[in-house]
Every structure is written in structure tokens, then in C-alpha cells.
Design goal:
The protein has 182 residues and is mainly alpha-helical. It contains 7 helices and 2 strands; from the N terminus they run ααααααββα.
Length: 182
């Protein structure tokens, strides 16, 4: 079970990262929403779609992993030692590039601004509700991160917050591009 301070920390982080991202995308024109710094970079619309997909993917995996056997104390300690990797995920964006899983790569199926923002908010609301209400042993169940290996359920919820922060930094970079449509 999560400690109350962990629960509050993850709920606060999820809310704060959502508020920051929504502020960054508010008021964008269609041209700004679809602008790409270069052909191989994602537009803000694609970033938002990726975030909605990732949110559902991670939350679903956290819920499914809870169905399995809990890990030993030794395994828990090993995974807890990765807390700093989760906490620094956004700040290490420049030096540590991560590749999205195919399931979370934007395809354009969610491209309408209003629909995509509504989907992102809906997914985040479900994650916040889960984090606020679960009594499950999140610290005792793991699944693998593409770069960090096994993380526990609490860490995965924090990853969702820091992942959104990471992409907020990416959106700021897109908006700072010399060719950004004004």
C-alpha cells in the first residue's frame, strides 16, 4: 500500500504536470498545433496524442500487474533504488532520448484539438482517481520501463507525471523554434 505522503506526492505531481501542459497548449492556432520543427520531430498535436496513449497504456499495465504475485523485499529494495531515475526523467530530456513504444506512437487518429485535449484530460482524471483511491500494494508489483528496467506501480504513476513534464519541455522547445508560426 502507498504511504499517505506518497499518495499525496503522486496526485500533486499528476495534477501539476497536467496543468502545465494544458496551459502550454491553450490558445494554439491550427497551424501551431500541427507545426513541426523538422520532419522527424513530433508536432504538439502528436505530442498530446502520445501523452494520451501513454497515460492509458501505463495505467492499464499498473492495474494488470497488481493481479500477479507481490515481489520479495529484496526485489522491492532493488527497484526502490531507481527513484532518482523517475524523479529526473524530465530534466534529463536533453541527454537521454527515449523511443516511444509502437503502441504509444502517435498515428493521427486523435488529431482534433478539442477531442484530443478532452481525451488527455479524461485519461489523466482516471489516473488521478486511481492514485487517490487505490489500496493496492503498488510498491510490491513491477513492470519494465524501456530504459530503466523494472519499476514499481508507485514509480510508474510518478513516471506519468514526469513524462508529461518532459513533453512540456519539448513543447516549449517547439514554441521557441525560429520558424514557429506567430
Amino acid at each position: 500500500m502507498m504511504e499517505e505522503q506518497e499518495r499525496q506526492a503522486v496526485v500533486d505531481a499528476l495534477r501539476a504536470s497536467e496543468a502545465r501542459l494544458l496551459k502550454l497548449v491553450s490558445g494554439l492556432t491550427e497551424e501551431q498545433w500541427r507545426f513541426r520543427e523538422s520532419p522527424e520531430r513530433w508536432s504538439i498535436a502528436e505530442i498530446a496524442e502520445h501523452l494520451a496513449l501513454q497515460e492509458a497504456f501505463v495505467r492499464g499495465n499498473v492495474q494488470r500487474m497488481l493481479e500477479g504475485e507481490a515481489a520479495s523485499e529484496a526485489q522491492r529494495a532493488e527497484v526502490r533504488a531507481k527513484e532518482h531515475l523517475v524523479a529526473d526523467l524530465a530534466e534529463r530530456r536533453a541527454e537521454q532520448k527515449l523511443k516511444s513504444r509502437p503502441a504509444n506512437t502517435p498515428t493521427g487518429r486523435l488529431s482534433d484539438f478539442d477531442a484530443l485535449v478532452a481525451e488527455l484530460r479524461r485519461e489523466r482524471a482516471q489516473t488521478i482517481a486511481f492514485a487517490a483511491e487505490t489500496e493496492a500494494d503498488l510498491r510490491g508489483h513491477f513492470f519494465a520501463h524501456v530504459a530503466f528496467g523494472d519499476l514499481d506501480g508507485y514509480q510508474w504513476l510518478m513516471v506519468l507525471a514526469t513524462h508529461m513534464e518532459r513533453h512540456a519541455l519539448q513543447i516549449e522547445q517547439v514554441k521557441a523554434d525560429a520558424n514557429w508560426p506567430r
